[in-house]
């Protein structure tokens, strides 16, 4: 059983903030800022792209509700809402979860995002490749 399944079953303790039939939300044990919450579907799936469109929709309904609560409760200036898919993206726990991270002006946290440049028509080619892979 994975570590989040153990938290869901109660085998491992967690500081829960929300629970319903579909998901639980609990405090991240290693927060980017204090108040960092994880929203986790109860049914085990490794990554977000393993969810159906319906499950993803249900998950983000809860993310929306809990994000509003985190922002209000902590009087946060902003939030980062993040989901990592796969080890290459930084995913460490292979049970789907969405991070809700409260952000404050001058909190000292910087995500080190770079900005590459497309050459020529590359941007259109990437758009076409992705467009043709969209299902439904
Ligand atoms: P990932 O990198 O997979 O997107 O994020 C995994 C997150 O789970 C990390 O932010 C980490 O601090 C958190 N985490 C890992 N193990 C535990 C645990 O046993 N309990 C709680 N509450 N959080 C955990
Ligand atoms: Zn699991």
Descriptive overview:
There is one protein chain. The chain has 136 residues and is α+β, with helices and mostly antiparallel strands. The chain has one domain: HIT-like (HIT family, subunit A), CATH 3.30.428.10. Helix content is 30%, strand content 18%. The two termini are 33 Å apart. The mean pLDDT is 97. Zinc ion (ZN) is lined by residues 2, 4-5, 44, 95.
Topology record:
Blueprint: H1 3-9, E1 16-19, E2 23-27, E3 37-41, H2 53-74, E4 78-82, E5 98-103, H3 122-133
Antiparallel strand pairs: 1-2, 2-3, 3-5, 4-5
Bound molecules: guanosine-5'-monophosphate and zinc ion (ZN).
Zinc ion binds near residues 2, 4, 5, 44 and 95.
Give a brief rundown of this model.
By secondary structure, the protein is α+β, with helices and mostly antiparallel strands. The chain contains three helices and five strands, in the order H-E-E-E-H-E-E-H.
Supply the CATH architecture: 2-Layer Sandwich
3D shape:
globular
Alpha carbon gyration radius: 17 Å
Summarize the helix and strand pattern as letters: HEEEHEEH
| Tally of structural domains | 1
Can you count the helices? Answer: 3
Low-confidence stretches: none
User: What share of residues is helical?
Assistant: 25-40%
Overall structural class, as computed from helix and strand content, comes to alpha+beta
Bound molecules: guanosine-5'-monophosphate, zinc ion
Average pLDDT works out at 97
- Which strand order do you get reading across the main beta sheet? 1-2-3-5-4
Give the CATH superfamily.
HIT-like
- The amount of beta strand, in percent, is 15-25%
Here the CATH topology equals HIT family, subunit A
